[in-house]
Amino acid sequence: MPSSSITSSWSAKWARLLSTTINQGPSATIALLYRALRHRLVDQWEYVYFERSLGEAFTPIKTPEGVQIRLALPTDRVAIERDIFPLITQDIENDKRYFSLLGSPEVQCFIALHNGHIVHYTWVFMDANKSPLVSTPFERSRIQAGDVYIGPAFTAETMRGVWIYPAVLATIWEVFSHTSTAKRVLLFVSPHNRGAVPFFQRLGFKRVPQSPSIVHSMLLRLRHRFIL
Prior knowledge:
Layout: H1 10-24, H2 26-41, E1 48-53, E2 67-71, H3 77-83, E3 107-114, E4 117-125, E5 147-155, H4 164-176, E6 184-189, H5 196-202, E7 206-207, H6 214-225
Parallel strand pairs: 5-6
Antiparallel strand pairs: 1-6, 1-7, 2-3, 3-4, 4-5
Helix pairs in contact: 1-2
């Protein structure tokens, strides 16, 4: 993982729990712990993984009218905190930590602006072995030299449905297809996001099959027995 610590430290997690308890009460803390437990035991085991070779041409996608797509710079941090941070919901609160990495050679952040305001971001980790992917049940043996990881990504609700994300992906393809070290893109989605799986399939991504582990099988049996 990047040296700036992609994964939240235990101290940060405890600080968040303490802050939640003080500001919102014990019930909010219990809800937070429940979401974390559910994520560990259920949700992350249902992720759907995709791959796509950077050698495969990406269908040209017209950038939506009035939208500008470019790499984010460290100097964009103030605008990002102004335009994006207020829109980030609790379930993706952790995305905020990545913006401290702006300017790092290990990551790139593509942003989309509309009428001067930032309305989208997509993170690209130059080495999938140093990305959030390794914090999932994805089989590490499947990660190859030249693999990059895309995610997380976010689009302001008012700009959804105009194909900003596909245009950003097309831009990323244009940039990385000319990079000799980058050969394949990996990403994952939650099956609860029903539109995500067919969305990436339409864009030419292929599912990466995962071999269910003994632990995974046990968790699935537990899920059928208990409501998590």
